[in-house]
Structures are given as C-alpha cells and as structure tokens.
C-alpha cells in the first residue's frame, strides 16, 4: 500500500506541475498576442490628427474613403475565395463518400405541398397552369327519388311502427303491395 500511495502522490505532483507549466504558457501566449496586436495597430492604424481647415478635413475624408474602399474590395475577395474553397471541400467530401460506397442518408422531413406548389418547385417559372382539381369537377344536382320523399314524409319512426303493428298494419301493408 505504501507503493500505491507513493505512486498516487507522484502522479498528483506531476499533474500539478504540468498544470502550472500550462498556466504559465497560457499567460505567455496571451502577452504575446497583446504585443502582436499593439504592433499591428501601430503599423496599420496611425494616430489620428484632425486638421484645422475645411479643405484639409475634406482631403482626410477622401483618404479615409479610399482606404475603406480598398479594405472592402479585399474583404470581398477573401469572401469569394472562402466560398470557392468551401465548395471545393464539399465536392471532395462527396467524392470521398462516392469512393467509399457508403452514403450518409440525410434526415428527411415531411412537407405538405399542393400540386401547384410541387409543379412550381419542379418547373420553376415555366409553371403557369393551375392544378385546382376541384374546379374541374362537374357539379351534379341531386334528384329526389320517391324513396327519399317517402322517408322524409314518414317523420317519426315510432308513429310508423305503431301504425303498422297488429293486424291492421299488416292489412295496410298487404293492400299497399297490391
């Protein structure tokens, strides 16, 4: 057990020493980043001195606008390069999946679409025909049949049964059948 205690104590001592070294390294990196930031700002952003006359202010504004345009062009170029590289990465990843033969199935969502919306999605601006299926249906007028009239005239079923009960009701049904 003494060996175990010594081993665990040694491990804890090594762990604390490594943590102290890591903490000092993190502090050094933070200080280096701060110095690098200060140097960059000093190089690229000189201190601003505002001139007194109107013409000198206009010249300063023109220079600042020119710098802003240059930075915007550079930002746009880097964005385009980034988009291009991400597209290339996606294509290469797709080729990798194709070569491996394993396809990752995307999660599918159920989408309710009408026929018009589906045709619009498939055909785009070419779709002009309206697929309203209910509009093309014929309207059929319901004809009143004799049975339906009889059923409506009967009314309450209890009365009907009372009338047809017993011998008189059977006699009426027999006479009606003739």
TrEMBL record:
Name the Gene3D superfamilies for this protein: 1.20.5.350, 6.10.250.180
The UniProt entry's sequence similarity note says: Belongs to the troponin I family.
One Gene Ontology term, aspect cellular component: troponin complex
What are the record keywords, sorted? Acetylation, Actin-binding, Coiled coil, Muscle protein
The UniProt function text for this chain reads:
Troponin I is the inhibitory subunit of troponin, the thin filament regulatory complex which confers calcium-sensitivity to striated muscle actomyosin ATPase activity.
Kindly name one Pfam family recorded for this protein: Troponin
- Keyword check for Repeat, yes or no: no
Assembly and binders: Binds to actin and tropomyosin.
* Coiled-coil residue spans: 14-102
Q: What is the lineage of its organism?
A: Eukaryota, Metazoa, Chordata, Craniata, Vertebrata
**Care to name a GO molecular-function term for this sequence?**
actin binding
**Which superkingdom is the protein from?**
Eukaryota
The record's section on InterPro entries has: Troponin, Troponin_I, Troponin_sf
Name its species. Buceros rhinoceros silvestris
**Tell me, what is an example of a GO biological process annotation in this record?**
skeletal muscle contraction
Q: What is this protein called?
A: Troponin I, fast skeletal muscle
């Amino acid at each position: 057990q003494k060996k175990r205690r010594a081993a665990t104590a040694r491990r804890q001592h090594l762990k604390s020493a490594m943590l102290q070294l890591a903490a000092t390294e993190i502090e050094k990196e933070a200080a280096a980043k701060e110095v690098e930031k200060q140097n960059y700002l000093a190089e690229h952003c000189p201190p601003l001195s505002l001139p007194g006359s109107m013409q000198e202010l206009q010249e300063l504004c023109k220079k600042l606008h020119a710098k802003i345009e240059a930075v915007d062009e550079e930002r746009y170029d880097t964005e385009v390069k980034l988009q291009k590289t991400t597209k290339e990465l996606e294509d290469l990843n797709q080729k990798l999946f194709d070569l491996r033969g394993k396809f990752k199935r995307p999660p599918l969502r159920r989408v309710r679409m009408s026929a018009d919306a589906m045709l619009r999605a498939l055909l785009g601006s070419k779709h002009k025909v309206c697929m309203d299926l209910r509009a093309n249906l014929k309207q059929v007028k319901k004809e009143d049949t004799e049975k339906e009239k009889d059923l409506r005239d009967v009314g309450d079923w209890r009365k009907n049964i009372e009338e047809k009960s017993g011998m008189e009701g059977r006699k009426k049904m027999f006479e009606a059948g003739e």
